[in-house]
Write a structure and sequence with these properties.
Blueprint lengths: L11 E6 L2 E6 L4 E6 L6 H18 L3 E5 L8 H13 L8 E5 L4 H8 L12
Helix pairs in contact: 1-2
Length: 125
């Protein structure tokens, strides 16, 4: 059974794997990132990020809506991988802008604050 609510008619699924799904909003020109509940494999997360970057580059978009919902807390390895990926890749000819909807699980929220890594705005990458 899917952990996602049905996509609105304006959103189209671009990619989906055990980590989550990427929905594209062609009218508003942004990607909605939705994560699944449950455990993740680092390789699956990296594939997921690669597809997100490819979609931004293909469309020339610069906006993400990041919905963590009830995902499990990110591990230090995952946080490092995500930070490295977005800070070393050029996915868009402009700065990236993101909106993050925090997860329901309070520990998943704390994983962003801990581990000695400070949140930085996407525009600094």
């Amino acid at each position: 059974m899917s952990t996602f609510s049905p996509a609105t008619p304006l959103l189209r699924t671009y990619f989906e794997n055990p980590v989550g799904r990427l929905l594209e909003h062609p009218t508003e020109q942004y990607i909605r990132v939705e994560y699944r509940t449950g455990p993740r494999q680092l390789g699956e997360l990296q594939t997921f990020l690669n597809h997100a970057g490819a979609l931004l580059a293909q469309r020339g978009w610069d906006k993400l809506q990041h919905h963590e919902g009830s995902m499990a807390a990110l591990t230090l390895e995952e946080i490092t991988s995500i930070t490295d990926y977005w800070s070393t890749q050029k996915h868009s000819p402009t700065d990236l802008y993101g909106a993050m909807l925090l997860p329901h699980e309070v520990f998943a929220q704390l994983s962003w604050k801990g581990n000695g890594l400070a949140m930085r705005p996407l525009t600094t990458f």
